[in-house]
Amino acid sequence: MSTLQTAQGAAAAPFDRAGFIEAFGFSFRNGAALAGRAFDGAAVPLTDAQSVFDVLRNAFRAAGDAERLDMLKAYTPLDPGVKRAQIVENEAQSDGLRAMTTRQQARLLELLARYVEKFGFDAIFVVRNYTTASLLASLEVRILDSYETELATTYREVETLAEIHVRSRFS
User: Fold this and answer.
1) Alpha-carbon separation of residue 121 from 43, 96, 117, 154 (angstroms)
2) What string of pLDDT tens digits covers the 171 residues of the chain?
3) Residue 30 CB: number of other CB atoms within 10 A?
4) Cβ-contact 167, 53 below 8 angstroms
5) CA atoms of 77 and 59, how far apart (whole Å)
6) CA–CA distances in Å: residue 128 to residues 42, 70, 131
7) How far apart are CA 154 and CA 160, in angstroms?
8) Which of 113, 114, 109 is nearest to 87 (CA)?
9) DSSP string of 78-128?
10) In which element (H, E) is residue 160 found?
């Protein structure tokens, strides 16, 4: 079967390697090869979101540094969203990347540029888990981190994004 088939509350029908890659190859950006390896190495039936996410996460963690860095570089930069944000007058009206003050926008754009310069890839956040203020505060801290510490933080964010993607395929 080449596409994921689910029914409300029912387990997914088994799928072949191509169907798995089609359904989950984008859970980790540029992740088709990773999804193929995850499918090939699965020791359990891949019939639910948790089992699929577990094999994908394990494959991601087992991937080499260069492959993981290529995946990080494939994530959408936050800058365009920040630039498109509605400008509001006071911070109480801020709403993630949708609405922010001019000051917040300028600071985010400055930090995002510095982040790329320092780490060599764009900052990755599960944006829906942040307010504008908490995103700014987190970026202020993360920009001071070592490369290794930031990679660990970024990998956690990427794994969360992948889990959200996998779970959405089963809902």
Assistant:
1) 33, 21, 8, 10
2) 333 444 333 344 578 999 999 999 999 999 999 999 999 999 888 989 999 999 999 999 999 999 999 999 999 999 999 999 999 999 888 888 899 999 999 999 999 999 999 999 999 999 999 999 999 999 999 999 999 999 999 999 999 999 999 999 988
3) 16
4) yes
5) 24
6) 30, 24, 8
7) 10
8) 109
9) SHHHHHHSEE-SSGGG-BTTTEE-HHHHHHHHHHHHHHHHHHSS-----GG
10) helix 147-169
For residues 169 and 49, the answer to whether their CB atoms sit within 8 Å is yes
- The token duo for 40 is 């090939």
Neighbours of 40 (CB within 10 A): 11
Which residue do the tokens 């060599």 mark? 120
pTM of the shown model: 0.89
Segment holding 17, helix H or strand E: helix 17-24
